[in-house]
Specification:
The chain is about 40% helix and about 20% strand. With about 325 residues, it is an alpha/beta fold. The protein has two domains: about 120 residues, Periplasmic binding protein-like II (D-Maltodextrin-Binding Protein, domain 2, 3-Layer(aba) Sandwich), CATH 3.40.190; about 140 residues, Periplasmic binding protein-like II (D-Maltodextrin-Binding Protein, domain 2, 3-Layer(aba) Sandwich). The N terminus and C terminus are likely disordered.
C-alpha cells in the first residue's frame, strides 16, 4: 500500500512538471511570434546608427562642401538629435538629386537652369532657392609667375585659347597651361558665362579644348602649386598661401582688384557670385529650422571658411 502511495505521488509531481514545461514553451512561442509580427522600428529617421532623431541629406556644390560641412558639424553640436549628411559631387549632381527626391537640400554655386526647373516641375517639384553666402572666384597662378594682374578680356582670351603664351600678357616666354573645373561644376558654368563669354548671353564661346578639366577645387590648387606655367580659377575659400592670386580689372585701364570679403561686398571685384541651397518646395520641420539657422546664426562661420556672409536674413544678399 505504501508503495502505491509513493507511485501516485511521483506521478503527480511529474505531471505538474510537464504542465509547467508545456506552459513555458507556449509562452516562448508566443514571444517569438510577437517579435516576428511586430512592426520594425522606422529606419535612421527615428533611431539611426548615430542615435539621431532626424536626418537631413545635403548634397551638391564642391565649392560649398567645406562650408556646408562646417555648418552641419556646428548644428549637430547644438542639436544632437539631428544628423546631417553632407556630400559634394558638383552643383548639377546635387540639383539632380533634389529633382529625383533623394536629398533634402541641394547645394549649388550657380542658379538652377531653366531645363532643370522644368524637369523638377515635371516631377511635381517646385524648387525653392535660398542664397546662403557670397563667393569670389579667384584667378590663381604659381608664385614664381611674374604676372600679377589681368583684365577680364585677357582672362577670357586665355581660356578661349586666343592667348597661349605668358609673354603675351607681360610674363615670360612660357606656354600657358589652362586648368578648369569639370562641366558639372557650378563654378565652371559661372566662369564660362561671366568670364569666358564676358556676360554676353548671345556668345557661344567655349573653353579651349586644351584646358585640363579638374574634378575638384583641391585638384586645381594642387596643380597650380606644382606647375609654374599653370593658371586656374577657384572659390576664394580654397586659395592657399602658396598660390599667387591675380588682381582683376573690368577694363584695360583698371582698377585692378584682388578678391576679398570687402571687395565682394562693395562690388569692386568683378568675379563674384551668390551661393545657393535649393529645396523641393517650401521646407518644413527640421529642414526649415536648419536653413533658418544657416541664414542667421550660421553666417558667423562663413568668413572663417573664406566666403562672404549675406547681408541680413532670409537669403537676400
Amino acid at each position: 500500500m505504501g508503495e502505491d502511495c509513493e507511485l501516485e505521488f511521483g506521478d503527480s509531481a511529474m505531471v505538474r512538471r510537464g504542465w509547467l514545461l508545456w506552459m513555458l514553451l507556449v509562452a516562448m512561442g508566443i514571444g517569438w511570434w510577437w517579435a516576428g509580427c511586430a512592426p520594425a522600428p522606422p529606419p535612421d529617421v527615428q533611431t539611426g546608427e548615430s542615435g539621431a532623431t532626424y536626418t537631413i541629406e545635403n548634397k551638391g556644390s564642391d565649392t560649398l562642401v567645406n562650408l556646408a560641412l562646417a555648418w552641419a558639424e556646428e548644428y549637430m553640436r547644438l542639436r544632437p538629435e539631428v544628423r546631417i549628411s553632407v556630400t559634394g559631387g558638383g552643383s548639377g549632381t546635387g540639383i539632380a538629386a533634389m529633382i529625383n527626391g533623394t536629398v533634402d537640400i541641394a547645394n549649388a554655386s550657380r542658379k538652377m537652369k531653366p531645363e532643370e526647373i522644368a524637369a523638377a516641375e515635371a516631377n511635381g517639384i517646385y524648387p525653392v532657392e535660398f542664397v546662403v553666402a557670397l563667393d569670389a572666384i579667384a584667378v590663381v597662378v604659381h608664385p614664381s609667375n611674374p604676372v600679377d594682374r589681368l583684365t577680364l578680356q585677357q582672362i577670357s582670351d586665355i581660356y578661349a585659347g586666343r592667348i597661349t603664351n605668358w609673354s603675351q600678357v607681360g610674363g615670360e616666354d612660357r606656354p600657358i597651361v589652362l586648368l578648369s573645373r569639370e562641366s558639372n561644376s557650378g563654378t565652371y558654368m559661372y566662369f564660362l558665362e561671366h568670364v569666358v563669354r564676358l556676360g554676353d548671353k548671345e556668345s557661344d564661346l567655349l573653353f579651349s579644348p586644351d584646358a585640363l578639366l579638374m574634378p575638384s577645387s583641391e585638384g586645381i590648387s594642387t596643380e597650380v602649386r606644382q606647375n609654374p606655367n599653370a593658371i586656374g580659377y577657384d572659390g576664394l575659400g580654397y586659395v592657399t598661401p602658396d598660390q599667387k592670386v591675380i588682381a582683376v580689372a573690368r577694363e584695360p585701364g583698371g582698377p585692378f582688384v584682388l578678391p576679398s570679403v570687402d571687395t565682394v561686398n562693395d562690388g569692386s571685384y568683378p568675379i563674384s557670385r551668390p551661393l545657393y541651397m535649393y529645396t523641393a518646395g517650401e521646407p518644413s520641420g527640421v529642414v526649415k529650422e536648419y536653413i533658418e539657422w544657416v541664414l542667421t546664426d550660421g553666417q558667423a562661420l562663413v568668413p572663417e571658411l573664406g566666403f562672404v556672409p549675406i547681408e541680413g536674413e532670409g537669403g537676400t544678399p
